[in-house]
Amino acid sequence: MGERTVIPFGPQHPVLPEPIHIDLVVEDEHVVEAIPSFGFIHRGLEKLVEKKDFHEFTYVAERVCGICSYIHGMGYCQAVETVMNIQIPPRAKWLRTFWCELSRAHSHLLWAGLLADAFGFENLFMQCWRIRETVLDVIEETTGGRVIFGSAKIGGVRRDVDNDTLKRCAVKIASAAAEFEELKKVFRDDYSVKQRLCGIGMLSRDDAWTLGAVGPTLRGSGVRTDTRLEGYAAYNELKIEPIVETACDSYARCMVRMHEVTQSFDLIQEIAARTPEGPVFEKPSGYPNGEYFARLEQPRGEVIYYVKGNGTKNLSRFRVRTPTFANIPPLLHMLQGCELADVGLIVLTIDPCISCAER
Amino acid sequence: MIPEQVIHDIEPAALRERTAAYRRDGWRLVQICSTTLDVFELSYSFTRDDRFEHLRLRLPLEGAQVDSITEEYFGAFAYENEIHDLFGIRFDGLKLDYLGNFFKTSVSKPFATSMCVVTGGKNNG
Amino acid sequence: MTRNFLAGFAYLLLAPVIGALLAGVDRRITARMQGRRGPPILQPVYDLLKLMHKESIGARRTGHFFVLGHLVFMMAAGFEFFFGGDLLIVIFAFALSSIFLVLGAYAAHSPFSHIGAERELLQMMAAEPILLLTAMGFYIANGSFRVEEISASPVPALLWLPGIFAALAFILTIKLRKSPFDLATSHHAHQEIVKGLTTEFSGLSLAIIEVTHWYETIMLLGIFYLFLAPYPAAAVLLVAVVYLLEILLDNTSARMKWQWAMKSSWTTASLLGAINLIVVYYWLGVQP
Q1: Which of A92, B29, C76, C121 might form a disulfide with A280, Cβ 3.0–4.6 angstroms?
Q2: A324-352 pLDDT, tens digit each
Q3: For chain C, how many helices (H) and strands (E)?
Q4: C116, C185 contact by CB (below 8 A)
Q5: DSSP E strands: which ranges in A38-161?
Q6: Rounded distance between C-alpha atoms, residue A23 and residue A12, angstroms
Q7: Helix crossing, C2-33 with C62-83: angle to 10°?
């Protein structure tokens, strides 16, 4: 039994570029207790809905997160559209799906880089982010922005993308996908990577479910679930098979995300080929009155947008339950009894985005 | 298919019992949301397979308190602490209580008043 | 004798210069492997000059003293080596130098540097036996611990000691703080214990640690040179190849945990070294 030391982990920590603070009670290098604290960057964005016009708020919703921003804006729009009973044009739906999948691919690639950095594999980190650049270039080419691109608006999308551009993007993505397959082999087969990931941060299927894990964290524990199966946007016309791994460890969660990038790259190319012609915007009229819980699949997992309108230009409530928020209880469970060297890794395997968890 | 959203209105006293039933039947707690109207409106969302249901209960603005469901779903502690810090609703029997230190807000209970609902309170948010 | 002194002093003067250039080249090659352009070759020197201008912040002054000890004993070890002195003295002075750094890390009351120090001690436990085995190997092969006599031997030691050579290359990764063994401290502050061992050093102290690391690198590469000492050109080439392989390894592996570091060095490396030693001992015993 060693002496107990409390090691502060975050809110400013090199392995974790996220403002979460965890007090790690360690004996030698064995973590006996992990006590998290949050709330360093609560911005009260949900409250802002009372001051902003519900159209304007799309852009606020998008700024909930700096990585998965697009899906936040789109989810908000989808919730409001359902309340207002607006059918958006099919082309807008397909374009939204296109950007959704680009967001997923770039978010997962960013995450893979951070994970590699957390286990000290700098080269892999650089390669992940290099491929991510291609994805960002495609986003820039189609929207003008790279990370926060404000393309969704209530009633459709802000701008159309001509079919030639879509085709060109598909080619770029295809080449990125080929490069990514090489990269995936390293995550899948490299001895040192497997040493660091296999059997680390176990989260059993039952624990994952009852603690409310979502997204790749839940799928890595063997639960077949993916909100995209509900068929929002154009997903009802695409074939989605949830990627499930059953090992319940960090390696499983990593592989889920790796395969999801491949899946996203495939979907992007399919969407680029199949997007129908037509208008991309349907002007909404009136004000939202009613409530709706929209459920979407973020790169990090299931996200909930609750919208309650009262028939005025301001909504009375907007709430977003981000995937990271749901993944925090499972994270605490995983941290109990791990090694200090694995803490950064385990925290990363839920792909934390504390800024969007606190909003 | 996007599932139909069923909202069950319940009494606050029945919350634990209904939650326990969901837990027994293998539902996953999706979220807890509070809305400030002329009352606090709490929504507990659960999901299983392709079903998505909500429990809805109403609490008075003054001295609101309700049973914690952390006994059934431990993960609820995050939502309950959040709602406590932002709305000032007390949760009895919270298994991991941050005692108001979950979120560090400069104004206490910032979400407890709403500009959209005329409650007489001045908005600080 | 004058020649020996000259070599020793040349080491004291030139080792930091060559070490800095080597670090610059290392960073450049690493960058190219990662698909980046990389910094100028002189970047380590710029870093050092900047560090020297920075304020030294530390809760305790004892840390500075230990860092000084770290430098002085490293210089002593290197001097003894290039002077042509006793390999055992070199290894002991070298170990003492590392101990000073560990003490310096312990002097600061920071959990990060404490854990870094603990890991450094474990890594020393992993590395020291191999260094001793190396000295013993040279003794068996040449009948002397003196570097002077070892390097004067007409038969390259590599012929007798390939296992020990491999084991030492293994240890070099630990000493160079490269993946998979960059767990006590790494070249960038990107791990769960921030920068581990050196987290609490800043300004001049950190600059001294950096210079000491260059002294250390050159001395260790000197030992590799010794394996092919009769053929200087080939020996330099050997050293270059070893260093390139280290960079390659650094760029193709993750950081391992201390359990793995201990296990691998005590099994693989020690076994290689010990078997080599035993074989050479009997071989040379049979045909003197």
Answers
A1: A92
A2: 888 888 888 888 878 887 887 888 888 88
A3: 12, 0
A4: yes
A5: 152-153, 156-157
A6: 13
A7: 110
Distance between C273 CA and the closest CA of chain A, angstroms: 24
Please list, in sequence order, all residues whose beta carbon lies within 8 angstroms of the beta carbon of residue C112, skipping any fewer than 6 positions away.
Answer: A7, C193, C194, C195, C196, C199, C200
In angstroms, the CA C119 to CA C186 distance is: 12
Query: Any residues with CB less than 8 A from the CB of C63 and at least 6 apart, and which?
Result: C104, C107, C108, C200, C201, C205
Specify the DSSP element, H or E, that contains A21. Answer: strand A21-27
Q: Which amino acid is at C209?
A: I
End-to-end CA distance of chain A: 41
Q: How far is CA A209 from CA B26, B30, B32, B51, B72, in A?
A: 9, 10, 16, 15, 12
Number of neighbouring beta carbons within 10 Å of residue A332: 20
ipTM of the complex: 0.80
Residues in chain A: 359
d(C-alpha A150, C-alpha A127), whole Å: 28
Q: Which residues of chain A make contact with B111, given a CB cutoff of 8 A? A: 44, 46-47
Contact B30 A358 (CB under 8 A): no
pTM comes to: 0.85
pLDDT grade for A2, boundaries at 50, 70 and 90: low
Between A121, A127, A339, which is nearest C35 by CB? A127
**C180 preceded by cis ω (within 30°)?**
yes
Domains of chain A: 4-358 (1.10.645.10)
Tell me which residue has tokens 């070199």: C90
Tracing tokens 């491999």 back to the chain, one arrives at C166
Question: Domain-by-domain residue ranges, chain C?
Answer: 2-286
B58–chain A Cβ distance below 8 A for any pair:
no
Residue pointed to by tokens 């074939």:
A239
* Rounded average pLDDT over B55-62: 85
Q: Do A340 and C115 touch (CB under 8 A)?
A: yes
Q: Is C274 helix (H, G, I), strand (E, B) or coil?
A: helix
Which of B28, B37, B103 lies nearest to residue A209, judging by beta carbons? B28
Could you read off the pLDDT of A75-92 as tens digits, one per residue? 888 888 888 888 888 888
Residue C201 structure tokens? 């050093």
Q: How far is residue A133's CA from residue B42's CA, in Å, rounded to a whole number?
A: 43
Structure letter (DSSP) for residue C115: H
Structure tokens at C208: 């001294």
For chain C, what is the radius of gyration of the CA atoms? 19
Q: Is B89 exposed, middle or buried (0-12, 13-18, 19+ CB in 10 A)?
A: buried
* Residue in C190, C255, C260 closest to A14 by CB: C190
pLDDT tens string A169-196: 889 899 999 989 988 988 888 888 888 8
Residue A85 region by backbone torsions, left for phi larger than 0, else alpha for psi between -120 and 50, else beta: left
Q: C67 in helix, strand or coil?
A: helix
In angstroms, rounded to a whole number, what is the distance separating the alpha carbons of residues A34 and A339?
Answer: 11
State whether A122 and C254 contact (CB < 8 Å). no
Whether B and A touch (3+ CB pairs < 8 Å), yes or no: yes
Six-digit token string for C10:
């040349």
Residue B46: strand, helix, or coil? strand
Q: Do A120 and C254 touch (CB under 8 A)?
A: yes
